[in-house]
Amino acid sequence: MRGWWREITGLVLPPVCAGCGRSRLVLCAECRIRLCGGRARRVVPDPVPPGLPSVQAAAPYADAVRHVLLAHKERGAMGLAEPLGAALAGAVMGVRRSGAAGDVRGGSGPLLLVPVPSTRRAVAGRGHDAGRRIALAAARGLRAAGIPARVAAVLRLRRAVADQAGLDASHRRANVAGAMGVTERVGRLWLQGKQVMVVDDLMTTGASLAEAARAVSAAGGRVVGAAVIAASPRAFENHRN
Q: For the Phosphoribosyltransferase domain, which residue ranges apply (predicted)?
């Protein structure tokens, strides 16, 4: 109901740019370029959590990009799913270009995008599953670019976890260690032997991505990399150093 109401009000109220607030558009051209107009790059957290696959991000988590992500996730700006999906698709293609995943066009079946799961409480509170919505938009963009891709939202949290905000890297790893699993039989059938890209909106320490990759591998999926819309500016710098 909450998500439905937000979509209706988005049609009635005059929009402002989620990135800079200056335009009567959902996202102005300048902020869209900042979000998804660049070339995705590899990002490396410090320290690197065990089991973290190669990660590519579309943009640093700062300024307009940060505002856009928060507007979609926390304030229900549903119209931002398409440009956010384009940014995520660019990061997926960045993994492909890097060679870390080999040729994601090969293998049996499409490339599966597996979103890092949110807690049920977070999804209920926001009125929508932000990660799944963005992943679906990314898959559409990838298919339009000739890369067969589908979303497999098969990961779930098997136990309660604390809010990661405010936790340092070691506590984040401990918080999510062993917490994710695949939805029983159907999820395992989806993943068995398939090429999987773990996706999320943001990487800070990489703990959630590493845990998601572990859960996918345990269910028989072949993790070929991870892609995020944004990562900390420091994670971009770490790869260059």
A: 187-235
